From TrEMBL, chains A, B:
SMART domains in the record: HTH_LACI (SM00354)
Species, as recorded: Brachybacterium alimentarium
Keywords, sorted A to Z: DNA-binding, Transcription, Transcription regulation
Record's protein name: HTH lacI-type domain-containing protein
Keyword Transcription regulation found: yes
Pfam families in UniProt: LacI
DNA sequence: TTGTAGGCGTTATCAC
DNA sequence: GTGATAACGCCTACAA
């Protein structure tokens, strides 16, 4: 067993055909299933296939059929990531495989040009765009590529692609309701609000908040200060006998820790409501004592892929919006 | 501007040739640069190319040349990820693009079969394997695929592929030295040691520790308990007038927070040494006060890609091991 | 139910 | 320095 330098040439459908005693096209038909095949031949072909360890050549298949079996996934810059991204990406890759597709990474850094490239060269036959902004430069190239696509995150203008996202408006309402149930006088929203105008999810969330808080006796405070000092600021806002709920779409971990550090995680003045998730494993013991909403990232990832597969495979399938409802995590 | 349903067919090199008034093969030669072309024709061809917005068809190119321009990246399961993975992946994707390659995700879940698939179908012309175990089932299929590959993480037996990784042995020595410099009597290693036999990085790290601690007056304790209680256990180990250093390859954030929560981050009895990194952005204020080692993930990612490109493009290039030295982060 | 054959868009080997 | 031309491996009308 020496050093193997050259790989031996992989078998072609021609080889399979020869071994099975049929024509090359029959092999192809067995594979694509686009024509009825008698049980006898099918069996012989399949035998030959795994006797040779045959896999259809992707380049040839793509060239001929225009379908590469590859979905382009445009991921945002990872700077300051907290592990959330990886949950989406991993789940998307897994679900894609279940449907026979592979995932090709396109970094947001490449921008619109990156999209044009993978589209024109034909590497990808469909796209998933993550963390879409309200007005996103990537939408243009995607639209005139004509490729089916799904966005995670709802863009401002409804595009010709499908959308899968958390129902942030409902999330807003849920938080308000919970705060009231827990007899809070005030809801402090940390972190995200400062970027309100840039991010679609935040603005929808705030819509939900306003909607639900409008007729209630709940004061809503948008906190834009440093996350580490959120608990302190909350305390200062809270008069004796009052209670303040704390929630944020981002920065959950930081604030959670700040709460814990000051021993304020469970007291009467402040109630921390957590946007939970798989990325928070390292603080999970802390989470046990507070109410949690599940942002359902796994479900969103799966739905995104399934929706794309639908656009690809069901003909006449039009784009649609799917909003996934947040869920309270049972303690 | 109505609803655009059909995408118009992209231009081929044939179209470019026609527009430039040359033969199709000339266009190809301009693109690949595998034959000298006069400046005049080159200019005309390039004009035609961007007048038409031409991009070579990837399927055809792959079919003909056996080079897909795609690198398969095998990522580990993301369960309990802390954001580290995304740093690697993002950086690898970026660096790959700089060299003209794209990254295709292969989840570790697919295991050896996944490798066989991307190899046999010809989607990938090279592979990067992340978080390789000491004895990894994926190495087999990769080896007999004959494809060039790079592993992030040094496997037990030296394979025919290249290796890029942090120099964990040196890391071990650095930690011991620092602990001694800081006049610690004891080094408590949390988290990782329990899995010593499974992970190559951990065992190399411990080798370095033993190597450096052997002749010194430093007691080394392998802590396998819950991370949240590490500071407490450290305290219990520490007699009056003694000092204990704390370090771990994993679980940095948890222990860091536990230290902060008990106000022990900067005291005389315990010294926390952090394995720093981009994933810890959300605790960065806490890091300011402790010594930090940079695990150099960005550099490792870049080197992995460059190494792979070398294997692909420099002929006769053999595999080699590259260990990146950890660095103290200057405060 | 199965076989024959044309062509997808490149690359690279011949010729000139 | 440039132009024809033969594959690459597969899909899919068209025949039988």
């Amino acid at each position: 067993m020496g050093v193997v330098t050259g790989r031996k040439k992989p078998p072609t459908s021609q080889d399979v055909a020869r071994l099975a005693g049929v024509s090359q096209s029959t092999v192809s038909y067995v594979l694509t299933g686009s024509r009825p095949i008698s049980d006898g031949t099918r069996a012989r072909v399949e035998d030959a296939i795994d006797k040779l360890g045959y896999h259809p050549n992707s380049g040839a298949r793509t060239l001929r059929s225009k379908r590469s079996g590859v979905i382009g996934l445009m991921v945002p810059e990872a700077e300051a990531d907290d592990g959330v991204l990886m949950v989406f990406i991993g789940e998307i890759a897994r679900e894609a495989r279940r449907h026979g597709y592979d995932i090709l990474l396109v970094t947001a850094q490449e921008g619109a040009g990156g999209i044009r490239r993978v589209v024109r060269t034909g590497v990808c036959e469909a796209l998933i765009l993550m963390e879409l902004g309200r007005f996103d430069e990537r939408v243009g190239p995607v639209l005139d590529s004509g490729l089916p696509f799904v966005t995670l995150g709802k863009p401002e203008e409804f595009p010709q692609g499908s959308v899968v996202d958390l129902d942030f408006e409902m999330l807003g309402r849920m938080i308000v309701e919970r705060a009231i149930e827990e007899r809070c006088d005030r809801l402090l929203l940390f972190g995200a609000p400062s970027r309100k105008r840039e991010r679609n999810d935040v603005s929808r969330f705030l819509d939900g908040i306003e909607d639900a808080a409008g007729e209630e006796e709940l004061e809503v405070v948008l906190d834009t200060g440093p996350l580490a000092e959120v608990p302190d600021r909350a305390l200062r806002l809270t008069a004796p006998n009052e209670r303040t709920a704390l929630f944020g779409i981002n920065g959950v971990r930081q604030v959670l820790f700040a709460m814990a550090a000051t021993g304020a995680l469970v007291d009467d003045t402040r109630l921390f409501i957590a946007l939970s998730g798989e990325d928070l494993v390292d603080v999970s013991p802390l989470l046990a004592s507070v109410p949690q909403v599940d942002p359902r990232r796994v479900e969103i990832s799966e739905l995104a892929v399934r929706e794309l597969v639908r656009l690809l495979q069901v003909d006449g399938a039009g784009p649609r919006i799917t909003l996934v409802e947040p869920r309270w995590v049972e303690g």
